[in-house]
Design goal:
Helices cover 28% and strands 26% of the residues. It contains seven helices and 13 strands. It has a nine-stranded mixed beta sheet. β1, α1 and β2 form a beta-alpha-beta unit. α1 runs parallel beside α5 and α2 runs parallel beside α4. The protein is globular and about 55 Å long. The N and C termini lie far apart (51 Å). The model has no long low-confidence stretch (mean pLDDT 95). The structure holds manganese (II) ion. The site of manganese (II) ion has 6 residues, from β5.
């Protein structure tokens, strides 16, 4: 089995290293990850300049681009055949609810799914991120269980792991995405030249975070596994919209 591993925190990130080591117990692992931290890059592709692909080690490459660039380059340029599985992570910090829209971690997995590969995105809850081994364990267990699973459609799983020792995890729950409250306002600062600058503020707390959601599972100490799809169509609105438009 061949696994393509990526992340959005950059190729030097501890979560990536821990996960590569764990997955190499199960499969051949090719790591292609961004040169810099690209958290929040979402699905963006670099289209305004060429990309530089640097080989760091036998099975480790970095790309001076986004997570989606990495998967694209790996599948279309580096590999002769598509990988059996794309894994992205372990991200330093959770990707719950609406986070998946902004996440570069989820985007790398999604790019894999777009290219026809089953894919897993995995994130460890912040802010301390002390237990990468717990997240690595959760992923390897998942991969073991789904080995040999042959589905026609490529699937995409978003996994979030509480920052707890392995023995303290309660189990695994299949969840749906919750939703956050509106993000906090921007943070104002003055730069060294006396000019005003703005930082994007922290994301909001869980709003739709009740039983069944990813927020609820991780809060209770469970590994959360949410199946995702990329069809953003608001099906429930289609009929109403047809009436509004009188068509
Ligand atoms: Mn990140």
């Amino acid at each position: 089995m061949k696994i393509l591993l990526c992340n959005d925190d950059g190729y030097r990130a501890p979560g990536l290293t821990v996960l590569a080591t764990a997955l190499r117990e199960l499969a051949t692992v090719l790591v292609v990850a961004p040169e810099q931290n690209k958290s929040g890059a979402s699905n963006s592709l670099t289209l305004d300049r060429p990309l530089r692909l640097n080989q760091i080690d036998a099975e480790l490459y970095c790309v001076d681009g986004t997570p989606a660039d990495c998967i694209h380059v790996a599948v279309t340029e580096l590999l002769d055949q598509p990988p059996d599985l794309v894994v992205s992570g372990i991200n330093a910090g959770e990707n719950l609810g609406d986070d998946v829209i902004y996440s570069g971690t989820v985007a790398a997995a999604m790019e894999g799914a777009f290219l026809g590969c089953p894919a897993i995105a995995v994130s460890l809850l912040g802010p301390d991120c002390a237990h990468y081994v717990s997240a690595a364990n959760a992923v390897t267990e998942l991969v073991r269980k789904i080995l040999g699973e042959t589905r026609r459609e490529p699937w995409l799983l978003n996994v979030n792991v509480p920052d707890l020792p392995v023995a303290a995890l309660k189990g695994t729950r299949v969840t749906r995405l919750g939703q956050r409250h509106k993000a906090a306002s921007v943070v104002h600062q003055i730069d060294p030249k006396g000019r005003r600058v703005l930082w994007i503020g922290p994301s909001g707390a869980g709003a739709d975070a009740g039983p069944g959601t990813d927020f609820h599972a991780v809060e209770a100490g469970f590994v959360s596994v949410t199946p995702l799809h990329t069809d953003l169509t608001a099906y429930r609105m289609m009929e109403g919209l047809t009436t509004w438009l009188g068509i």
